[in-house]
Design a protein that fits this description.
Elements lengths: L2 E3 L18 E3 L6 E3 L8 E5 L6 H16 L2 E5 L6 H12 L5 E4 L4 H12 L4 E4 L11 E2 L3 H16 L5 E7 L5 H14 L5 E3 L3 E2 L4 H14 L3 E6 L4 H11 L7 E5 L3 H9 L4 E4 L2 H16 L3 E3 L1 E2 L4 E3 L4 H11 L2
Parallel strand pairs: 4-5, 4-6, 6-7, 7-8, 8-16, 9-10, 9-11, 9-12, 12-13, 13-14
Antiparallel strand pairs: 1-15, 2-3, 14-17
Helix pairs in contact: 1-9, 2-3, 4-5, 6-7
């Protein structure tokens, strides 16, 4: 595993606070840096999401656990509409605040890279959930999203059984985010092994829940031979399940989803969704905070921390749900 050493720094954040405190500055690699906390002061980190989906509530629990275990303070910041400009404003604000490090899931990695590099000149930056590999971020905490896409594609083929002739619809908020790009690539790689399947252009909703459901309704109305639907982001599963439940179609498409939204898990339990590919958002929060602390302490850190994925179907749903409820306490 590739390792990097990073000096000390100072960072940012805004919105949905979980705590606060200041930091000291000292010289170091990559610009003005933060010295280890001393004199009773505590490291203060920012954890920036890419939208306000319920998925991030579990990541916030991980951040809070890290606060307890590591003696740090953190702020969780969420762009409410999941728009690029919102997240850019959060990072701009973060640069003028008294933080020691920032973890972010970039809404658009290419567009965000110059801004991420400006932040990285002031403090350590890591990415989580969705990477910005061209930026000067120190490390990435998150799923190998191409592998996650392959897992979704594999589950989809199982859901179809012998019925592998017809159209396939993918649904997501944005297709310019790295996780969406990679998941789509992984799904399509697997589905191309079934020549009878035709993959439609991706349906985009801009993280608008109402539009997400309408996209599914439109696909159901437009394509009578639609046999498979896949939701690439956490809220897409409930949107697809709701639209297909309400549909009068006799032959309803199979559904594969991502993440552990409560409605998604209920739909798996009911047999409406065949399977959902779950990440480990608790670890996104916890490991991001741990990495930032290690970086500011001058320790070497891995370039990638991959908490892994699981495919949840009816067979293993009960055990997963029990564990999830424990995390959410």
């Amino acid at each position: 595993m590739m390792m990097r050493s990073v000096a000390r720094t100072c960072v940012i954040a805004a919105i949905a606070a979980v705590g606060a405190v200041g930091c000291k500055k000292s010289g170091g690699e990559g610009g003005s840096a933060a010295a280890p906390a001393s004199g009773g002061k505590t490291y203060h980190f920012a954890f920036v999401t890419n939208n306000s989906a319920g998925f991030w509530n579990i990541a916030k629990k991980g951040v809070e656990k890290a606060e307890q275990d590591l003696g740090i303070k953190a702020e969780v910041m969420r762009p409410l509409k999941g728009e690029l400009a919102e997240q850019q404003n959060l990072l701009e604000d973060a640069m003028v605040r008294d933080f020691n490090g920032l973890a972010v899931s970039p809404v658009n990695p290419d567009s965000m890279t110059p801004l991420l590099d400006r932040v990285a000149a002031k403090m350590p930056v890591i990415t989580h959930d969705s990477d910005a590999p061209k930026s000067k971020r120190v490390a990435y905490v998150g799923t190998n999203n191409t592998e996650a896409g392959r897992a979704a594609g594999t589950a989809a083929l199982k859901a179809l059984g012998d019925k592998k002739k017809g159209k396939v619809a993918l649904f997501v908020g944005r297709i310019d985010m790295q996780n969406a790009i990679e998941r789509r690539a992984g799904v399509e790689e697997i589905l191309k092994s079934a020549p009878g399947l035709e993959i439609l252009p991706v349906f985009l909703d801009g993280t608008d829940r109402a539009k997400a459901k309408k996209n599914v309704e439109d696909a159901l109305a437009r394509y009578p031979d639609l046999i498979l639907t896949i939701g690439l982001w956490s809220y897409n599963g409930p949107s697809i399940a709701g639209a297909i439940r309400a549909s009068s179609r006799k032959d309803k498409p199979a559904i594969v989803a991502f993440d552990e939204d409560e409605e998604t898990l209920k739909a798996v339990e009911d047999g409406v969704i065949y399977a959902t590919i779950v990440q480990k958002p608790f670890e996104f929060g916890y490991q991001s905070m741990k990495l930032l602390k290690d970086i500011v302490d001058g320790k070497q850190v891995p370039a990638t921390v991959n908490p892994g994925i699981d495919t949840i179907s009816k067979e293993n749903l009960t055990a997963f749900w029990t564990k999830l409820k424990e995390l959410q306490k």
